Amino acid sequence: LVALVTLLCFVASGAHEAYTALAGMETVITALFLLLYLLRLDARMRCLFWPLADIFNSVIAALFLLVVCLFAVTVRTNKGTLAGGVFGLILLVLCVVDAVLLSKKISLDKARGRSAPAK
């Protein structure tokens, strides 16, 4: 939802295309991961470890959002770009939290698997 608000702020303000493209890309990727988990497609498509792909997406998105949203906030061509930059920074924090929570979940799942007795 925050990615969609960021995209709408950048589109409505007529911001630079890079701002809009990054917000749009993150909105689409987030929606695809949400559909993947809601429809339980991650259990059917076992060729990729989906939580790790989600962590990778969150880290890369956080890096791009850091650069783009700091530019949007510092340049401040208009209030829409400033609002999009602020929402983008909120999205950056959410991406970092998502990556941290998923990495803890993965490490906790591995710890339980190792403590099982060997056969």
TrEMBL record:
Keyword Transport found: no
Compartments where found: Membrane
Species this chain originates from: Sitta europaea
Membrane-topology descriptor: Multi-pass membrane protein
Protein name: CKLF factor
Key words, A-Z: Membrane, Signal, Transmembrane, Transmembrane helix
Upper taxonomic lineage: Eukaryota, Metazoa, Chordata, Craniata, Vertebrata
Coiled coil: none
Main location: membrane
Lineage top rank: taxon: Eukaryota
Transmembrane region(s): 24-43, 55-75, 81-102
GO cellular component terms given for this protein: membrane
Residue stretches making up the MARVEL domain: 1-107
Leader sequence segment: 1-15
